[in-house]
Specification:
The complex is a heterodimer of chains A (364) and B (596). Chain A has 16 helices and 7 strands. Helix content of chain A is 37%, strand content 9%. Chain A folds into 2 domains: 165 residues, NADH:ubiquinone oxidoreductase-like, 20kDa subunit (Rossmann fold, 3-Layer(aba) Sandwich), CATH 3.40.50; 133 residues, Cytochrome-c3 hydrogenase, C-terminal domain (Cytochrome-c3 Hydrogenase, Chain A, domain 2). The longest helix of chain A has 15 residues. In chain A, the strands form 2 sheets. In chain A, strands 2-1-3-6-7 form a 5-stranded parallel sheet, sandwiched between helices. In chain A, strands 4-5 form a two-stranded antiparallel ribbon. Chain B has 596 residues and is α+β, with helices and mostly antiparallel strands. Chain B has 2 domains: 306 residues, Orthogonal Bundle (Cytochrome-c3 Hydrogenase, chain B); 234 residues, Cytochrome-c3 Hydrogenase, chain B (Orthogonal Bundle), CATH 1.10.645.10. Chain B is 38% helix and 14% strand. Chain B contains 17 helices and 16 strands. Chain B has a 3-stranded antiparallel sheet. A 3-stranded antiparallel sheet of chain B has the order 14-15-16. A two-stranded antiparallel ribbon of chain B has the order 1-2. In chain B, a hairpin with a 5-residue loop joins strand 4 and strand 5. In chain B, helix 5 crosses helix 6. The chains are: A alpha/beta (364), B alpha+beta (596). Chains A and B meet through helix 4, helix 5, strand 2, helix 6 and strand 4 of A and helix 1, helix 4, helix 6, helix 7 and helix 8 of B.
Chain lengths: 364, 596
């Protein structure tokens, strides 16, 4: 029989004390209070390591590359101790028949108890043969593998929305996972790629609490995708003050003014970049001087140039205008946030009946 | 049952057919089929790219300044190199000169990619072809420590350290949930390392996994994130501010210090872990001389890492440029991406259609019309292929040729060309490695030679990062803070029609982008990428590609376990998402073919 997560840790020489410390760190990284620590500990003490089958469709492997950059938890610990990455063609030792046999084995042995993580998407044109897996269309493999899964994770913009190969005219008819798999819970973790710690955060949340995190209307975890880049941007005061970069490498660029006029999509993009930042918190696109290209939004490739302003606003520097931009965009992309005028964090928290969500948002 | 002769190889498909699909531990989707004779020696090889995305048609009609972001998504493993190639192509088309700082920062980012990509390839994609994880459980930690300390001064080398790792591994294996190590080829006789070397390598597999995430922070500092940092036509997006108000939000002293410390750590890890591991592992496989393929006949490199901003001539490029053909190691041919006679793509055995498939087309004038059609001797059905017919079309990869020759690209090509040019930066490390291992020069034309060249190049890139960092500081000291040239940022300043070519040496080899711009929009975009060169199928004359050639005449210990096949294919570091995106210059026609 499979061991519990806690047993695995103990067998690997982790002390009870270290284990509790890990639980406490997990609580912190998920934005939860100390009251959750015993709850996490209890869950881990009683849970087996969940098998994960990681499939690749049409993609560029940036999601896998991002995943292995997770700083907390370390990828090593995720793979050796937290889940059982039984199939992932990018990392696994086996190939060909030996690899394919694993999918069958997991399906049989862990029916209803494994997670399928999908990177990329299936193309439907040419009978699916724009992506061939084991001599067959990838879409067939995807459907079969998902059939007995407990839940699906759609990694990145490809699986969530279609991403670059689905940009117009989408020659292969690359199709997001939820349009092909319709009878399973699906968590969408968009971004090109998603932030590493968002990826491991989503997985560990699901393993720890044994449930799907609270999702918005687009199926994204609210804890990481509940707020706009713009609302948490450290350059926001410059937006409010009407201080903008007008040209690359101008004086305002060197002073770190707002990149709105350079095409920054922060006002219409829901992601955690401006709070969590990238690669262990080192920086993020706006901090490095380039506007957000909106890579976690549906169809971001087809919304005009990355250097076009998101909308033609006549006045700057007041809160109402900023939120008008965001409100309009929210309506367009169908995000969960109501398109009312003032979407400050405080207002959101008040109108939000879900306590968890309020916590996760405020503590970032 | 035919025997065909090409490039010195006899292709005989009469033996037992072995199919490997998917080929794992690569980027993207790939299949390989081989025929083995009654002595289990590979006598025929068929390499197939099994995915296609069509990015260039998607680019048509878009803003050329956006192209870097689209093409960057060709590949998330060699992230950034397509973006850099793209901005160079656009700058070439528009005659944009970039500032010195931008050139240095781009080089630092490109070298950083080399370091990361080569390291992750060696430990996480390739090592398990040489290293038996299960055998590591039998190692004596004390002897492992002695081995480690005899080859390197790397401090994490005590018996207790290796014992801890071994215990963790042991318990992991005992749990019965083997995760990514499940169904591996453990115990296969083709594995030659003693248990101690296996334990050392597995330990470094885990250490490298921890370390690699820190390497890429150079991209994060200059480009905001990794994978897929941001780039800019005309320079780099990051502004420099060393002492003024707002410096805290720009490239400042703290950011530079972080870059510098990462470079130091990269040099340390590569020279004290990667290179010693490489040598130690190689010393047990000296007799395994297979996998050379066409590497001793035909090699190509565009060169990269311009020392002088805006000078892309061979004299400015620190990575060597040139072509070797016909096995003549005394002559380096000049390479010109714009010469229609040099680079051409063929589709006789690719799932595309030309009006005349006996001719190749230069990327500026290329035609790509997807045409999925299986040869008449294919076994299985269209959507359930058992074995392919290489006499017909059999891959989503085109077959590029240089002056009609199939070429190998990548670290080995760069090192051989640098060696032939007698460039001491490339010649001396090769000579030293070979003499340390007691091997002749000829030994470099092999699977192991490819893997060794990659390691040497990772070290070169780390040290060259130090050179460019110092150069950046010198330039800043001289008072130059410029990072972007915006003279031609506005499309209104562009000619009505223009075209350009950009190139880099991606970690996997020669990478070129060709762009035509009309009325401020992309009129045509074409990319020929390293794995197209290496992984392409036969051409109209029946010449095989580098992957296929490299598998020829290799004995396999156990035909049902494709360990040797994986070993050689992995030595190229295949990147299939790169190789198979190549698309039509005329996107609209293309779309009408596709949409059903």
């Amino acid at each position: 029989m499979t061991e519990t997560f806690y047993e695995v840790l103990r067998r690997q020489g982790i002390t009870r004390r270290s284990f509790m410390k890990f639980c406490s760190l997990t609580a912190t990284s998920l934005g939860l209070g100390s009251a959750f620590v015993p709850k996490i500990a209890h869950a881990l003490e009683n849970k087996p390591r969940t098998p994960v089958i990681w499939l690749h469709g049409l993609e560029c492997t940036c999601c896998s590359e991002s995943f292995i950059r997770s700083a907390h938890p370390l990828t090593k610990d995720v793979v050796l101790s937290m889940l059982s990455l039984d199939y992932d063609d990018t990392l696994m030792a086996a190939a060909g028949h030996q690899a394919e046999a694993i999918i069958e084995e997991v399906k049989k042995k862990y029916k209803g108890n494994y997670i399928v993580a999908v990177e990329g998407n299936p193309p439907l044109n040419e009978d699916g043969m724009f992506c061939i897996h084991g001599g067959r269309p990838f879409v067939e493999v995807l459907k079969e593998t998902c059939a007995d899964a407990k839940a699906i994770i759609s990694w990145g913009a490809c699986a969530s929305y279609g991403c670059v190969q689905a940009a117009k005219p989408n020659p292969t008819r690359a199709t997001p996972v939820h349009k092909v798999i319709t009878d399973k819970p699906i968590v969408r973790v968009p971004g090109c790629p998603p932030i590493a710690e968002v990826m491991t955060g989503v997985v560990t949340y699901m393993l720890t609490f044994d449930k799907i995190p609270e999702l918005d209307r687009q199926g994204r975890p609210k804890m990481f995708y509940g707020q706009r880049i713009h609302d948490k941007c450290y350059r926001r005061p410059h937006f409010d003050a009407g201080q903008f970069v007008e040209n690359w490498d101008d004086d305002a660029a060197r002073k770190g003014y707002c990149l709105y006029k350079m095409g920054c999509k922060g006002p219409t993009t829901y992601n955690a970049c401006s709070s969590m930042r990238w690669n262990g918190g080192v920086s993020w696109p706006v901090q490095s001087g380039h506007g957000c290209i909106g890579c976690s939004e549906d169809g971001f490739w087809d919304k005009g140039s990355f250097y076009d302003r998101v909308t033609d606003i006549k006045q700057f520097a007041i809160e109402g205008n900023a939120d008008k931009v965001g409100g309009t965009a929210a309506g367009v992309v169908g995000a969960a946030v109501a398109a009312h005028a003032a979407v400050t964090a405080l207002a959101r928290a008040r109108s939000d009946k879900q306590g968890d969500n309020q916590n996760s948002g405020d503590k970032q | 049952m035919t025997v065909l002769e090409t490039q010195g190889f006899k292709l005989d498909n009469s033996g037992k057919r072995v199919v490997v699909d998917p080929v794992c531990r690569i980027e993207g989707h790939m299949r390989v089929e081989v025929n083995i004779d009654d002595k289990n020696v590979i006598r025929n090889a068929v390499s197939t790219g099994t995915m296609w995305r069509g990015l260039e048609v998607i680019l048509k009609g878009r803003d050329p300044r956006d192209a870097w972001a689209f093409t960057e998504r060709i590949c998330g493993v060699c992230t950034g190199t397509h973006a850099l190639t793209s901005v160079r192509a656009v700058e070439d088309a528009l005659a944009i000169q970039i500032p010195e700082n931008a050139n240095i920062i781009r080089n630092l980012m490109q070298l950083n990619l080399y370091i990361h990509d080569h390291l992750v390839h060696f430990y996480h994609l390739h090592a398990l072809d040489w290293v038996d994880v299960v055998s590591a459980l039998k190692a004596d930690p004390k002897k492992t420590s002695e081995l480690a300390q005899s080859i390197s001064s790397w401090p994490l080398s005590s018996p207790g350290y290796f014992r801890d790792v071994q215990n963790r591994l042991k318990k992991f294996v005992e749990s019965g949930q083997l995760g990514p190590f499940m169904n591996g080829y453990w115990g296969n006789p083709a594995y030659k390392l003693p248990p101690e070397a296996n334990l050392m390598a597995v330990t470094h597999y885990l250490e490298a996994l921890d370390f690699q995430k820190d390497i890429v922070k150079v991209h994060t500092i200059f480009g905001g994130k990794n994978p897929h940092p941001n780039w800019l036509v005309g320079g780099v997006p990051c502004a420099i501010n060393l002492e003024g108000t707002g410096a805290v939000g720009a490239i400042n002293m703290e950011r530079l210090n972080l870059v510098s410390s990462i470079i130091d750590r990269c040099i340390d890890f590569i020279d004290n872990v990667y290179i010693p591991d490489l040598k130690a592992i190689a010393s047990f496989y000296k007799d395994w001389t297979y996998g050379g393929g066409i590497s001793s006949q035909a090699l190509l490199s565009y060169g990269d890492i311009p020392d002088k901003a805006n000078d892309y001539s061979a004299s400015s490029l620190l990575l060597p440029r040139g072509a070797i053909i016909g096995g003549d190691l005394t002559k380096i041919h000049e390479v010109d991406l714009k010469d229609p006679e040099q680079i051409q793509e063929f589709v006789a055995h690719s799932w595309y259609k030309y009006a005349d498939e006996s001719k190749g087309l230069h990327p500026f004038d290329g035609i790509t019309e997807p045409h999925f059609e299986l040869g008449k001797n294919t076994k299985g059905t269209k959507t359930r292929i058992e074995s392919l017919d290489e006499a017909g079309k059999y891959s989503w990869i085109k077959a590029p040729r240089w002056r009609g020759n199939a070429m190998e690209v990548g670290p080995l090509a760069r090192y051989v060309i640098g060696y032939v040019q007698k460039n001491p930066e490339f010649k001396e490390p090769v000579d030293k490695l070979l003499s340390d291992l007691g091997l002749p020069l000829q030994a470099i034309f092999s699977t192991l030679g490819r893997t060794a060249a990659r390691g040497l190049e990772a070290s070169w890139a780390a040290h060259k990062s130090r050179y460019f960092f110092d150069k950046l500081i010198a330039n800043l000291k001289a008072g130059d803070l410029n990072t972007a040239n915006i003279d031609k940022w506005e499309p209104s300043k562009w000619p009505a029609e223009t075209k350009g070519a950009g190139f880099t040496e991606a970690p996997r080899g020669a990478l070129g982008h060709w762009i035509k711009i009309k009325d401020g929009r992309i009129d045509n975009y074409q990319a020929v990428v390293p794995t197209t060169w290496n992984g392409g199928p036969r051409d109209d004359k029946g010449q095989i590609g580098a992957f296929e050639a490299s598998l020829m005449n290799t004995p396999v210990a156990k035909p049902d376990e494709p360990l040797e096949i994986l070993r050689t294919l992995h030595s190229f570091d295949p990147c299939l998402a790169c190789s198979t995106h190549v698309m039509a210059p005329d996107g609209q026609e293309m779309a009408s073919v596709k949409v059903r």
